[in-house]
Amino acid sequence: MNGAEALIKTAIDCGIELCFANPGTTELPIVGALDRIAGIKGVLGLFEGVCTGAADGFGRMAERPAMTLLHLGPGLGNGIANLHNARRAHTPVVNIIGEHATWHRPVDPPLAMDIEGLAGPVSGWVRTTASTKELPGDIVEAVRAASSGCIATLIVPHDYQLGACTTQAPPFPGNEFDPLDAAEIEAAATLLRNKKKTALILGGKTLSSEGLAIAARIRGMMGCDLLAETFPARMERGSGLPIVEHIPYLPKYAQAMLADYDGVVLVGAKDPVTFFGYPGVPSRILRADQEETAIGTGGQDLVEALSTLADSLKGKGVGAPASSAQVKRPPIPEGALTSAAVCQTLAALQPEGAIIVDEGGATSVRYYLMSDVLPPHTILRITGGSIGYGMPCAVGAALACPDRTVINFQADGGALYTVQALWNEAREGLNITTLICSNRSYRTLVGELRRAGVEKPGKNAQALVSLTDPAIDWISVSRGFGVPAVSVTDVAALADALKRSLAEPGPSLIEMVLGS
Ligand SMILES: Cc1ncc(C[n+]2csc(CCOP(=O)(O)OP(=O)(O)O)c2C)c(N)n1
Ligand SMILES: [Mg+2]
């Protein structure tokens, strides 16, 4: 067995099933090993941002890592933006990056660069394999590190992939959480008991069905509010689960939401801050006089932390646990195809168990107000704010959950960063409906310009925020990648197209030409 085969065999033993790859010469021994050692499906991404975004979507839904296989520094570089999103989402991902043979590296060949330096900022664990015999152990450690909710990047020189490997991999230990911090839990319990108006701000795994049920119990006992971080990596929603509002993206709305709390408890969420620094607007959304405490910080099990907090409050609060909400669907709206109408049409038609990948930009904002008591569904959001995540994330989510419907609620600008993911949808026959929010602009940036005092962008600025001249021909783009597509300009046509798409297996794309 050579090093590459040992790498693949060990990865399979650690539970890796999928490899999103865009290989080159320095990864070819691993490509060959994928053929000789069965157990990992290779999925070619036509751009590395597709590989990394798909690994993010897979990891969010499967709750275990997929592998990426990327070519040297430049390949990793192309994948960085979606690794950034995955890092912010605490998604488990294992990157395997080929490196030049150790004997070739000193001549500084053209593709050589500092791969560790590039990997560091997005990775919780980075290593360059030191010899063939270290490879099996390195893979075990990489998968273990990733499983704790981070990106693990293993850089493997070409000659070590080719060398004979006789070492046995150590057993895969699985993921272990750090022990809970009793003082943290006590501080949170004290805040909830003593402060008048309080909220739990939830993030990470606390937005799972189990976590939300515990949060609802705490709300029932203490009368606190439940809020979610702005762009959660994954959130279960719908009937049977408590309604949890997201902290808004825009500072003034976020400040308004949080202004009246005497204290908040963070559980898997960070201290709320504005996305950007605006002159005269504080970066932190909470004021200094508002008390804040956090539980489950570090590598602890967040659901266990929340559950322990709930147990410690038992009998000391007032009220009963919140009851489940009944399903309430809005009707299909009438009239023009506005952002609100699009959101309402989706809410009216999305099936139970849908996975909604939201990179809807300015269009999807209102969806949340209309969808919190729909049949149960899962939301994946753009946790790191780096656009171009939606298309590949949908691919990864669909591969993780082949029996569920994936709806990619996708702004046009963001879609075009990683549009090649449509080809994967066609190639794998994935059950994904892509709703393109075709406002033919970087609408969010037009709003940001306005906030910066530019009411009417001039010709030059306009050219940098508009997607016209020519408008993107979405039907041709989509069909070109093998995905059937239609374009709609009114609500009735959207409802028809969406119903048809949801009823048929396989991918399809609907361009929604938006007025406002
Ligand atoms: C990788 C990356 N590049 C650039 C940006 C800056 N940016 C924020 S929103 C935006 C435009 C979004 O346009 P679109 O996806 O069409 O959504 P819309 O605002 O039109 O709803 C850009 C370029 C970003 N967030 N991430
Ligand atoms: Mg747009």
Structure characterization notes:
The chain is an alpha/beta fold. The chain is built from 20 helices and 18 strands. It has helices at 3-13, 28-36, 48-62, 72-88, 115-119, 135-147, 158-162, 182-194, 209-222, 251-258, 302-313, 339-349, 367-370, 390-400, 412-415, 421-428, 443-451, 459-463, 474-480, 491-503, and strands at residues 18-22, 41-44, 66-71, 93-99, 125-128, 151-157, 198-202, 225-228, 235-237, 245-246, 263-267, 291-295, 355-359, 377-381, 406-411, 432-438, 485-488, 508-513. The strands form three sheets. It has a seven-stranded mixed β-sheet, with helices on both faces. Strand 17 (485-488), helix 20 and strand 18 form a beta-alpha-beta unit. Helix 12 runs parallel beside helix 20. The radius of gyration is 24 Å and the shape is globular. The mean pLDDT is 96. The structure holds thiamine diphosphate and magnesium ion (MG). The site of thiamine diphosphate has 19 residues, from helix 15 and helix 17.
What is the tally of helical segments? Answer: 20
What's the β-strand tally? Answer: 18
Mean pLDDT: 96
What structural class do helix, strand and pairing data support?
alpha/beta
Helicity level, as a percent range? 25-40%
Major β-sheet, in short? 7 strands, mixed
Low-confidence stretches: none
Strands ordered across the widest β-sheet = 9-14-13-15-16-18-17
End-to-end Cα distance, whole Å, is 60 Å
Q: Percent of residues in beta strands?
A: 15-25%
Q: List all distinct small molecules, including ions and cofactors, that are bound in this structure.
A: thiamine diphosphate, magnesium ion
Overall outline: globular
Taking Cα atoms only, what radius of gyration do you get, to the nearest Å? 24 Å
